[in-house]
Amino acid sequence: MKHCLSLLQRGLSTLLLLSALSACSILQPTPMPPPAPTSKAQEVVRGQTATLTKIGNVSARVSGSPMDVEAAIRHKADAAGAHYYLILYVSDQIVPGRWSAEAILYR
């Protein structure tokens, strides 16, 4: 009986470990090509950045809405000559109604 319990615990431990490892693959984005460059910077997702060259980071803080801070990021990306940008976060946690965001710029 004690031996069967030990085997059951070992089997459950193995199953739990395999489940945790397979869940990690969900966090890995599927690589895909970015859209063709245009005259304005375009937002991309993480899976589209593998072939791009990072040229810097930008941040913005504005009063208004999440769309306002995203527009500020887009404007800064255009001003820096970036073809693409990846927004890392948008938040109003510090002061409600005052939004902050950070993004990585790419060519």
Automatic annotation (TrEMBL):
What is the designated name of this protein? Answer: Biofilm peroxide resistance protein BsmA
Q: Which gene encodes it?
A: bsmA
Name the SUPFAM superfamilies for this protein.
YdgH-like
Q: Which domain of life is it from?
A: Bacteria
**Residue ranges of every copy of the YdgH/BhsA/McbA-like domain listed in the record:** 52-107
Question: InterPro entries attached here?
Answer: BhsA/McbA_stress_biofilm_assoc, Dodecin-like, YdgH-like_sf, YdgH/BhsA/McbA-like_dom
Q: Which UniProt keywords apply?
A: Signal
Q: Which N-terminal stretch is annotated as signal sequence? A: 1-22
